[in-house]
Amino acid sequence: MGRGAIRKGRGRSTDAAHVPVLLREALEYLEPERGGTFVDCTLGLGGHARALLAANPTLRLIGIDRDPAAHKWARRRLAAFGRRVLYLQGEFGDATELLRSVGVEKVQGVLADLGVSSLQLDTPERGFSFRLEGPLDMRMGDSGPTAGEIVNRYGEADLVRIFSEYGEERQARRVARAIVAARRKGGISTTSELREVIHRAKRHYGRRRIDPATQVFQALRIEVNRELSGLERLMGQVADLLERDGRLVIISYQSLEDRIVKNTLRDLARGEIDEVTGRSRSETRLLEVLTRKPVRPSEAEVAVNPRARSARLRSARRL
Ligand SMILES: C[S@@+](CC[C@H](N)C(=O)[O-])C[C@H]1O[C@@H](n2cnc3c(N)ncnc32)[C@H](O)[C@@H]1O
Predict the structure, then answer these.
(1) What separation in Å is there between the alpha carbon of 117 and the centre of ligand 1?
(2) Which domain holds residue 276?
């Protein structure tokens, strides 16, 4: 079966298993009842999109996702909303250009629910999960290097850097060394082979809650998909994309992403600093941050949907 292809049976279970994260909270901050054009930068399976469209019949939604398989599924799930939805395949880091290509300059709401979708995670052929046997792919879109190419070709020092920076993996050196040694014996081509190498390389991981391969898999996914630079590019555009009083909601799943969101919102909310007084010049403030602290899922939500566990939502309003 080729990349992105989905078996019928799997599709049905993916549809049923997919629960949008922090949905009620996202809607509270986005206020779809205001109507207008909203952009969902991470359409995925269309869960948040469907709720936005259902909340207000005058709302139009532009759904961006770089994964062609996501579009296929979202189109099916959102079919009932017909021409109120516009689908754009591409990177949200190119949001301004993508929206311009369909004649849209400003929107009332921007949503990004970062990370991988359950569709991506649960499809073994995509190689995102160390729990499922599959090739080391991990590409969300249809271009760029695969995780296998990185694991088998990057120099040891680069692997160490990626694992420690993007995975905050304390035993990055050990793991990188073990990977390079495994390459000499014929390379690493599947998720379970890589997991095995990581498990053998890591010491003293004891009885931890998470699998010892978690951080290295996360790091590879971030590198493959250039996730942090894409988020930085998106955050650099949000203030210009939003109409006055427009709302922004970003849901992130790990601290590196959340830091980028938090810092950008802080800077945009502070505006320029007056050199003489040291105070922020209020007329240059672009956003008001609506979430002093990130919003976390309730215990009840995590019980129903364990993937929500690490989610953090931040929101802002365009001034
Ligand atoms: C967590 S899922 C979104 C789920 C969606 N909110 C729902 O309710 O179904 C994240 C989606 O964002 C997409 N994505 C991640 N990074 C992206 C980027 N830089 N540009 C465009 N899409 C991206 C992924 O392909 C994935 O489908």
Answers:
(1) 6
(2) 8-119+228-318
